[in-house]
Structures are given as C-alpha cells and as structure tokens.
C-alpha cells in the first residue's frame, strides 16, 4: 500500500509529485473517503492469518501485517498504543483479535483521526505528534509503529517519547520499508533490540497476490486501478532494491546519574571588531602603568572608568549575556558591571590561581587569545586528590577531573561564577595575549 501517507511533522517535505507529504496524505484520505473502502495504508504480509473473519478478508494481507507484528508477544489484558495509526484499520484488527485491555491510536493528521473516530467507536484516538505524545508516563504495555518511522524528522525524540509512555519492560514493535537502514542507533539510550526479522519476500508476495485479489474483489474501477498500480509498483521495488523489516524492542530500565552541584560556564561567540579593540588596549598599555593582582609578568590595567568608545559594544554584550546567565542561576537581584580591566600577557607571562571575591559573575572576552589556556579548578580538589587521585583513574571526565582547560578563541565571551578558582597558563607565543576581564554584581 501507499507508504508516504503516514507522516509525523513532515509538512514541509516534498513528495515525488511536488506536494508536501501532508498535502499528499490529505489528498489520499479524501480519495479514500469518497469510496469508503480502504481502511489500511500499510503493506501486506503473505501468507494471510487464519484467524481473520470474513469481514476482514478484503485487505487480508494488510490486516495480517499487524497480527504478525505482535506474534509471540503477550497481549492479554494489556494497554496498546498505535503511533501513526492512519485510517485505523490496523489498530481495529488488534482490538478485535487480541484480548487487549485498552486500544489507542494517534496520528498527526486530523482527517485520518476524524475517519477513525467515525468508524471505530471502541478505540480511543488522538491527534498528536510522535515527538510529543499526549499520554501519561508509563501508561502503555505495548506500542506499535507501522510504516511511518522513515518519515520522522527527529527519530531520537520518537524513541524518547515512546520510552516515556511505555511501562518498564514494555515492547515497541516496528515495521517499515528499509527499516534495517533507517533504524540507526538513536534508540539505544531507550530500548534494546530483541528481534530483527527480514520479511521483504513476505511483503513482495503480498503485493503480487493483491494484484489478482484486488482485480477480482474491488468493484469501483477508479479505486481498483489505484490499488493495482500501487501493488505492481511495490512488487517491482521489492524485487529490485527495497527491503522490509520487523524490529521488536524492549524498554530499557533507565539508570539515572544525578549531577548534584553542576557549575555553569557560559561561552558565546560575539561579532565585535576585536582588531580595533586590541589596538585601543595596546595604546592604553603605553600610557598607563600596570596594576598587578593575579598576573605574573605582563600588563594589567587599573579598573576602567570614564568613557571608552571602542569598548561600548562589548559593555552592552556583557550585560546582555550576563542577563542570560543570571536566569540560568536564578539570581534575583539585577546585576551591573562592577569592574572591568584589560590583560596583556607577553611571552611566558601568566596569571596565578585566583577567584573574584564579592562578585556574582566573572568573565573574560578574548581579543587575541594566542595559545594560552584558562584552567578552571575543581572546588573539591583538596578532598578529591586522595581517593580520586589520577593514579586510580582510567580517564578524565567531568565527574573526576581536578581541573578543566578552555582554549579561548578570538571574539569569545566566557562567564563563570566569581567563586570558581582559575588560572591562566603561560603565554608560549611571541605575540601578546589580549583579553578584557570583568565582574558583575549587585
């Protein structure tokens, strides 16, 4: 059957006919609604299930696909959600032949859901995206996803949402064209694969048998020709290059690592005229005596006061980015620039370990960073250095590092808590390392 009609968040994508997928989906639904014959929009599975009743034999292979998907899966008295339910024929088959406690279907297309609600009164349907399911956490035991996954723009969000609404050890049962290629690894944080089944030949033969079956049993010529063309086209595609797989997954038990006291370090690339600013700072160096605090060698200006036109844009950016940082740390009182100064380090000049006392946010903007890194020190270093000493570690990461090194680039703005101890390593370049540091506070 037509495989482009199931879509989640694909309004902007173009089909081979120049329409968006959603437009083609709507056109197809209007066409099917005109004759009210087609209840399935998925491929079929051959041979057909022996459980099907007479009223389900017109689309027997399509109905069998859904039953095959849940083969060997416990379903009795369980809650099931079909994501991308289309016209509802599949979820209706599952509700009819399996002893489910509750059956639900969702799709992004309102026209499809209108059809479902009109034709299947004992099933609950919703309009919602696969990336933002409007269901409670851990509500379902089973999720089916038939022939819509290849159109999802953000596949990891689909798996994340499916995992959220599934109970622990719940099953996600998927089938789709070329699923062995499109599955990727975006599921691995949320699910484990328990089975992968190649059913390409079953699908191809369902297409082949449907040619004779539809020719005999579909009375309306327009609808018959439509279904025959689809079946022939799909049969040819599976003989040549397409594949069709069933993938069965189980929800992982989520192991959470809580980060109790993370330290926010904000970096942002600006677009200022750093050459003009560096020239202004170098001219200042020639006129003003160095004010030594943490610097060993090099030149540090006194706290800048008065007007400094070449730096005006930087002042504005510091306040803007500082406002963003303030929201991150949920700091209540408005902040202002308390002090601001220029640092110029020559060859081998450096800054010893220090903090910025009486400061909420400290930071630096880099005009000419050379190769001299800024190193942030873990506040717990004095406690960590015994049992978490480097000799006991296989590698450094954000949980065990005693220090963290940042190599700034020109036009980079860095902000961090004023209490976070840091140092600047020696400038090994023959060129000046030029930066502007600042403190924000009440």
Care to describe what's here?
There is one protein chain. The protein is an alpha+beta fold and about 450 residues long. It has two domains: about 20-250, Rossmann fold (3-Layer(aba) Sandwich), CATH 3.40.50; about 265-440, Jelly Rolls, CATH 2.60.120.620. The chain contains eleven helices and 18 strands. The chain has helices at about 20-35, 60-70, 90-95, 110-120, 155-165, 180, 200-215, 220-240, 275-285, 310-330, 380-385, and strands at about 80-85, 100-105, 125, 140-145, 165-175, 190-200, 245-250, 265-270, 295, 300, 335-345, 350-355, 360-370, 375, 405, 410-415, 420-425, 435-440. The strands form three sheets. Strands 3-2-1-4-5-7-6 form a seven-stranded mixed β-sheet. The chain has a six-stranded antiparallel β-sheet with strand order 8-16-13-18-11-10. The relative contact order is 0.10. The model is unreliable at about 1-15 (pLDDT under 50).
Concise overview:
The protein has 442 residues and is α+β, with helices and mostly antiparallel strands. The protein has helices at 21-35, 60-69, 89-97, 110-119, 155-165, 179-182, 200-217, 221-240, 274-287, 312-328, 381-384; strands spanning 79-83, 102-107, 124-127, 140-146, 166-177, 191-198, 244-251, 266-269, 295-296, 299-300, 336-345, 350-354, 361-368, 374-377, 403-406, 412-417, 422-424, 433-441.
């Amino acid at each position: 059957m037509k495989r482009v009609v199931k879509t989640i968040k694909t309004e902007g994508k173009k089909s081979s006919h120049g329409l968006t997928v959603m437009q083609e989906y709507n056109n197809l639904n209007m066409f099917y609604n005109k004759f009210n014959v087609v209840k399935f929009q998925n491929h079929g599975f051959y041979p057909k299930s022996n459980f099907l009743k007479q009223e389900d034999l017109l689309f027997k292979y399509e109905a069998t696909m859904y039953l095959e998907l849940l083969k060997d899966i416990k379903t009795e008295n369980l809650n099931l959600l079909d994501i991308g339910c289309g016209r509802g024929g599949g979820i209706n088959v599952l509700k009819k032949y399996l002893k489910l406690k509750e059956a639900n279907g969702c799709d992004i297309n309102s026209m499809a859901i209108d059809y479902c609600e009109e034709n299947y009164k004992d099933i609950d349907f919703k309009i919602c995206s696969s990336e933002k399911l409007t269901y409670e956490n851990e509500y379902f035991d089973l999720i089916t996803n038939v022939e819509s996954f290849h159109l999802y723009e953000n596949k990891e969000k689909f798996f994340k949402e499916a995992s959220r609404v599934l109970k622990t050890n719940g099953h996600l049962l998927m089938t789709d064209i070329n699923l062995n290629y499109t599955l990727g690894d975006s599921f691995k944080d949320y699910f484990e694969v328990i089975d992968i089944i190649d059913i390409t030949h079953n699908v191809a033969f369902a297409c082949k048998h449907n040619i004779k079956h539809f020719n005999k049993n579909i009375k309306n010529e327009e609808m018959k020709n439509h279904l025959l063309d689809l079946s022939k086209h799909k049969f040819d595609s599976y003989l040549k290059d397409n594949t069709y797989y069933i993938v069965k997954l189980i929800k992982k038990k989520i192991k959470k690592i809580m980060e109790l006291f993370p330290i926010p370090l904000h970096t942002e690339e600006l677009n200022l005229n750093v050459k003009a600013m560096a020239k202004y700072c170098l001219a200042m160096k020639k006129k003003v005596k160095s004010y030594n605090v943490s610097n060993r060698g090099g030149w540090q200006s006194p706290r800048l006061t008065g007007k400094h036109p070449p730096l005006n844009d930087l002042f504005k950016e510091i306040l803007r980015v500082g406002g963003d940082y303030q929201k991150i740390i949920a700091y209540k009182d408005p902040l202002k620039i308390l002090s601001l100064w220029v640092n110029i380090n020559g060859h081998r000049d450096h800054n010893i370990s220090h903090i910025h006392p009486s400061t909420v946010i400290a930071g630096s903007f880099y005009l000419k960073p050379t190769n001299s890194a800024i190193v942030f020190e873990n506040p717990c270093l004095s406690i960590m250095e015994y049992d978490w000493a480097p000799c006991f570690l296989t590698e450094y990461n954000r949980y065990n590092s005693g220090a963290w090194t940042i190599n700034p680039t020109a036009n980079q703005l860095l902000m961090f808590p004023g209490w976070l101890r840091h140092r600047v390593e020696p400038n090994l370049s023959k060129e000046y390392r030029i930066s502007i540091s600042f403190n924000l506070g009440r």
